[in-house]
Amino acid sequence: MNCRKSMTNSLGAILAFAAAFIIAAPANAQTLKAVKDRGALNCGVSEGLYGFSARDKSGNWSGFDVEMCHAIAAAIFNDANKITYVPLDASRRFEALQSGSIDVLSRNTTWTLSREVELGLSFAATSYYDGQGFLVRRDLNKETALDLDGTKICVQTGTTTELNLADYFRANKMLYGLVAAPTLDSAIKGYDSGQCNVLTADVSALFGIRLSLSKPDAHVILPDVISKEPLGPVVRQGDVQWFNIVKWVQFAMVNAEELGVTSKNIDEALKSESPDVRRLVGAEGNYGERLGLTNDWAARVIRLVGNYGEVYERNVGTGSELAIPRGINQLWSKGGILYAPPIR
Ligand SMILES: N[C@@H](CCC(=O)N[C@@H](CS)C(=O)NCC(=O)O)C(=O)O
Fold first, then answer.
1. Partner residues linked to 136 by β-bridges
2. Is the CB of 252 under 6 A from ligand 1?
3. Is 109 in the pocket of ligand 1 (CB under 6 A)?
């Protein structure tokens, strides 16, 4: 082989190697690296919503949305607590993500078209299928939302809730007095002090709000659900690797429930002969490495946090004071609409 030909061959090999590297590492894959370098995930949560994100007296956060932060941290660090929580009210949540002060927003946020195309954000998955409802004083004797014509309604601003409220009353040719509240706290205070006689929010939130009132039994959640509120974790657009990590952490938890893998039986699952379970826990394939993590990424999530059903039940389901029935948040195989694509 002459010298010129061998140089051309080596150049070709270098270019091929470079091309393979470019394909393997997606453009703008900067979030995972930033999180690892920092040693903590910056997770945006709500300022305090019973069952979803609440801080106790010692400053520890807990709740369904907080567990999503735990799950992502577990997948990255094998430590579910490497998290800096950033509490955000409804109107500040998106700019915190856009500006980079949080890596992920895990805060009862509804997936809508405008939030993706106008704000430059992407919803990675739906973690909770919700809908909007109404909380009213029992002694008002209202039976359905159609009985609310002429009432005063408290609603938090910067939410889909205030938009749906306007749509619903317009569509049904009814009138209402708007009591707009900038924070959840002010909405609850407005309701409690009689500035409004109805409070509207996502139904999941109403369960917690009702319990926080001095006499929960004096208030009822009307049976009507007037909107679709698919809630889920949100990321900035432009970092496909990070988008995939957040999305697949959620899918792994749903798949784990479907396959019967829990935080209690994860050690047996590691020895399972089921191909689906083996791929999930990293005993087969290199799915975790392809995500930019380690192959036991999902096993870490399941061990340190749990599968979807475990997280649901202990935070908002039967294991909690909220006791919200699983409803449509049940697995597709059990009559709900939770359906995660396969890991393969
Ligand atoms: N899912 C709706 C509503 C979300 C929302 O912010 N709801 C209020 C009322 S329950 C809330 O969680 N407030 C807590 C806070 O601002 O920290 C949305 O994405 O706009």
1. 198, 220
2. no
3. yes
Does 90 sit in the ligand 1 pocket, CB within 6 Å? yes
Residue count of the chain: 344
Ligand 1 mean position to 89 CA, how many Å?
Answer: 7
Q: Average pLDDT, whole number, for the chain?
A: 93
- Establish whether residue 102 lines the binding site of ligand 1, counting it when its CB lies within 6 angstroms of any ligand atom: no
Task: Determine the distance separating the centroid of ligand 1 and the alpha carbon of 112, expressed in angstroms.
Answer: 14
82 - beta bridge partners?
Answer: none
Tokens 């949080």 correspond to: 102
pLDDT in tens, 275-324: 999 999 999 999 999 999 999 999 999 999 999 999 999 999 999 999 99
- Minimum-distance ligand 1 atom for the alpha carbon of 110: 19
Beta strands in the chain (DSSP E): 41-46, 54-55, 61-62, 83-88, 104-105, 121-123, 128-130, 132-137, 152-156, 177-181, 198-202, 219-221, 229-231, 234-236
Helix (H) or strand (E) holding 280: helix 275-281
Cβ–ligand 1 distance for 255 under 6 Å, the answer: no
